[in-house]
Specification:
Radius of gyration: 18 Å
Oligomer: single chain
Distance between the termini: 25 Å
Number of strands: 11
Strand order of the largest sheet: 1-2-3-4-5-6-7-9-10-11
Structural class: mainly beta
Length: 248
């Protein structure tokens, strides 16, 4: 049986998440279902007007975008699968419905699994105790890659920090120095009063400050794949990136 990648990364701490978050992060390849979240961002985008023209240059990457808005509807789909290199993964596909048009923002988080006996595995199966490092490939071409460091708060929230970003441009692997690297700080939790999932993400670059922010609430459900949409542990065609990246 496939183990959810967030459980692989968190180990015993996975059980410290609230039940609603455990359900959200329990999607695993081969389950026959995918997750659908629909809600509103209280704020989303780039608050700094002077920075927006620069972000517009990266719009085709479908990772960063120049728009900013409040009360913006969005939809997210989470697809658990095995990537082309045998790694268990989650691909998240977000549609953000700005008044000026829809922006796509998507990424694939893969688990690089190391069994406790020291050998390297990519299967993420329950054959042996294992631990995982999560690596996030961002954007349409998956050229921006970061490591994800996860933790669980005393209140059962999930926190994540992206670290050690690098760019893959053709054969080049370009680590971003700390002075240039933008880190994402994320927190997700269950709001019992509203009976909704909540999320807040800030992307901060040391030299210029806040680059991107999104914070909002959403409902979440699982839906079965239609026959022929996703075979076995594969990813539906419409959710695939234009390019996969094997390097981490």
């Amino acid at each position: 049986m496939n183990i959810p990648i967030y459980q692989l990364a968190l180990g015993n701490d996975f059980a410290k998440l609230t039940p609603q978050l455990q359900e959200y992060f329990s999607l695993a390849a081969g389950s026959g279902s995918y997750g659908i979240g629909e809600g509103f961002f209280d704020v989303v985008g780039c608050r700094q007007k002077w920075l927006r023209p620069l972000l517009a240059l990266t719009g085709s990457e479908e990772a960063f975008f120049p728009e900013y808005g409040e009360g913006i509807p969005f939809r997210i789909e989470n697809h658990a699968h095995v990537d082309p290199f045998g790694r268990p993964a989650i691909t998240a596909r977000r549609e953000i419905y700005f008044p000026s048009g829809t922006r796509l923002f998507h990424d694939t988080t893969s688990a690089v699994v190391t069994p406790t006996d020291g050998s390297v595995s990519t299967s993420g199966t329950a054959d042996a105790p294992s631990r995982a490092r999560l690596v996030d490939h961002v954007g349409r071409y998956r050229r921006l890659v970061t490591d994800l460091e996860l933790s669980v708060t005393p209140a059962g929230r999930l926190r994540g920090v992206s670290k050690a970003s690098r760019l893959f441009l053709g054969p080049l692997r370009i680590p971003l120095p700390a002075a240039l690297d933008a880190r994402a700080y994320a927190e997700q939790w269950w709001d019992e009063a509203e009976r909704k999932h909540r999320i807040q993400v800030k992307v901060i670059q040391p030299q210029i400050g806040l680059v991107l922010v999104y914070a909002g609430r959403f409902d979440y459900r699982l839906a079965p794949y239609l026959p022929g949409t996703a075979s076995g542990t594969g990813l539906p065609r419409y959710a695939e990136p234009d390019r996969w990246e094997q390097r981490v």
